[in-house]
Specification:
159 residues; Rossmann fold; globular
């Protein structure tokens, strides 16, 4: 079974969203054979990736950074998306952290990078804004020699 993991921004600008969706569908839909998708189900890129992976028939593995991860969601819609996708998951992995800290996010991101055959990064190419951010996980995966597919539209800026 091929494993594709995701790391990405929680905020995706409207002018990039269609491009990101199309590229995710291309990456996940072009795959042949059994597929496992790994995601922490954060708002933004993680949930979008998980939705498209499920549409493409992938098994979903969720990687939960901490016991209080649900408290990190900023709005009811994102939290509802997290619950909806978590219910559809085939497998759940929990990191051993009580609270959602940068270290917990880094542990979840590196777990995904360690466990996948390819990492998809919805990433503007800029450094991470906090430990465990997208830039850190991309650097970690590249350090392992994992193939990384970066999805972003040149010139687009996130909030």
């Amino acid at each position: 079974m091929k494993r594709i993991g995701v790391t990405g921004h929680r905020s995706i600008p409207a002018e990039v969203l269609g491009h990101v969706e199309d590229r995710l569908r291309a990456v996940l839909g072009d795959h042949r054979g059994p597929l496992e998708a790994l995601s922490s189900l954060a708002e933004g890129a993680d949930q979008l990736f998980a939705d498209i992976a499920l549409e493409c028939g992938a098994d979903l593995t969720v990687v939960i950074p901490s016991e209080d991860y649900e408290d990190a969601f900023e709005d009811a819609e994102s939290l509802a998306g997290y619950h909806r996708l978590k219910r559809r998951a085939d497998r759940e992995i929990r990191m051993d952290f009580a609270h959602s800290t940068d270290d917990a996010y880094y542990a979840a991101g590196t777990y995904i990078a360690d466990s996948c055959d390819r990492l998809v990064a919805v990433w503007d190419g800029l450094p991470a804004r906090g430990r465990g951010g997208t830039g850190d996980i991309v650097a970690y995966a590249r350090g392992l020699g994992k193939p990384v597919t970066v999805i972003w539209r040149a010139g687009a800026v996130r909030d």
